[in-house]
Amino acid sequence: MDGQFWGFSAGSPALLLIPMDSRATASPTGNDDYVFYRQGGWSWSIPYLAGLYALACQVEPGITPEVFWTKALATGDSVEIPARRSMPSQAELARQIDGILDERIAFMKQRSPDVPLEKIMAEAYSRLSGKKVEMISESDFRAWAAAGPILEMAVGDTKPKALKTIINPAKLIEALRKSAG
User: Fold this and answer.
1) Domain count within the chain
2) Is 98 helix (H, G, I), strand (E, B) or coil?
3) 4-26: per-residue pLDDT in tens?
4) What pLDDT score was predicted for residue 40?
């Protein structure tokens, strides 16, 4: 399957969200124990999607991955998550941005102590901005990051977020039943 089919290509509107966080499961500590995992990952999503595809194959044995994906997109749900906090004052926002930048730059220095900081920051700038540079001064990096990615980190939870097209197994299977029947 190519990246376009799975919804990962740049600018693709066909992104389908799959549950991968916040799960309660049987615990490895005992037969009557349960555990809650706040963060998951692809190792949880891929089996979930494979299991759902297997269910879809039971309902519609001739289903192709493309039809499955199209139906999953058509039957997905959207959820709006409200802002977690209000927008901070300009002074508080500047303090938060400076703190995040100080933390990130310290991490860069610690991670690669033998590489010039200007080169490490240039790699981050190039990767995030899409503009290739070999070196960037700390002041230029701070100015760029404070107006872009770090600003977004600092205010991200002050805005509502829309999660669009979250897979809905019940709606998907029902739609497959209707089209098969």
Assistant:
1) 2
2) helix
3) 334 444 444 578 888 888 888 89
4) 84
